[in-house]
Amino acid sequence: MTRAKWRVIAAAARIPGATQRIIATALEVTEVTAGRLIDRLCADGYLERRENPNDRRGYCIYLTPAAQPLLHKMGQMARLHEEEAFVGFDEDDLIKLDALLDVIAQNLAVSRSRYEAKKSEE
Asked: How far is CA 50 from CA 19, 53, 107, in A?
């Protein structure tokens, strides 16, 4: 299982019924890239496409029951990595780190919006 496939499975778990476009946006990849990964994961039996009741041209993406053990394993691995990464941090440190990371994410989002606006003006 590649990291890219894991990210798609995690996105489909977080946003059940998401379209390929929504998953691509969430992962910050192209729709073509997301589509190829979704195709592979459907072929592997971890995802399925269902008709979109709001758009007959698109499909909604859902996890299959086969993905549940994999999702559980991913959660265990994530907890293990978090424990290792945050050794020596107390609760106040983690709260402050989370707040600082939120500020960085907001700054990057604003910067990206400005860049895209400027790019579309050219």
From this structure: 10, 9, 37
